[in-house]
């Protein structure tokens, strides 16, 4: 396995792990997949650090609806912090 593929997988897994606290693991993984395709036109296995902002922006409306505005912003901030942004 190539090293950059590991980084790409780690980005998707980090986002899914944080979302799974609120959405459950299955829904979180599907949300990352769905919104990767919607926002970026490609799957989560291709995510790069440059894609993170676009993906998180795409996830924001759904998260605000499901967990509330304040909690949504905390979750997105925690994801950014974990990804080193």
- Separation, N- and C-terminal Cα atoms: 25 Å
What percentage of amino acids are in beta strands? under 5%
Structural class: mainly alpha
Number of extended strands: 0
Rounded average pLDDT = 90
Radius of gyration: 12 Å
Oligomeric state as shown: single chain
What does this structure look like?
The chain has 85 residues and is mostly helical. The protein has one domain (3-82). Helices cover 79% and strands 0% of the residues. The chain contains 4 helices and no strands. The protein has helices at 3-23, 25-40, 52-67, 69-82. Helix 1 (3-23) packs across helix 2 and helix 1 packs antiparallel against helix 4 (69-82). The longest helix is centred in the N-terminal third of the chain and has 21 residues, at 3-23. The protein is globular, with a radius of gyration of 12 Å. The model has no long low-confidence stretch (mean pLDDT 90).
Index terms:
mainly alpha; 79% helix; 85 residues; 4 helices
